[in-house]
């Protein structure tokens, strides 16, 4: 589906079929509608070894549904991979309808999309430990009616203090403040309102090596 966090990973296999170790390179090229986080895969391969490399393939919001193409080239050969792009269904949840997800910073092992991938085992993790505040933000293409924000943090080193903010014509408005939290899951409710973006401003964690950690965010 279209949207920054709605794509899938393409698993690229690099195999050494020789009897000697080699350095293998694979180049990736795609139609302009597709976004690739990398264009080159390079790896040292022992004899008979196969390395599997996941590559996240995404289509920008409002990309026309259809079949696009990605080409992988290595050692003088190329493979064309068709990529089917579809629009989110009308009944998709607010998280799947997000057009953009951003944060004040993110570690390579804790990307912003990890907070809305449906897997509490993955997390968004800021890249500025012990420096507060941090923020994580989700935008839609138009204002949506919302009244509930569920935050799932981690069992250890979870978030303690944060503010839930919504976008307003004159800036960000704090609709709820959470202080002293020790639970893994916390649900914040507020009077229904329409907003085109939600921001979670993190202020403190429950660990010595304080960092922002969001396992899942669910907005309704």
Automatic annotation (TrEMBL):
Listed PROSITE patterns: FA58C_3
Domain F5/8 type C: 87-220
Pfam families noted in UniProt: F5_F8_type_C
Gene3D superfamilies: Galactose-binding domain-like (2.60.120.260)
Highest taxon of source: Bacteria
InterPro entries documented for this protein: FA58C (IPR000421), Galactose-bd-like_sf (IPR008979)
Name of protein: F5/8 type C domain-containing protein
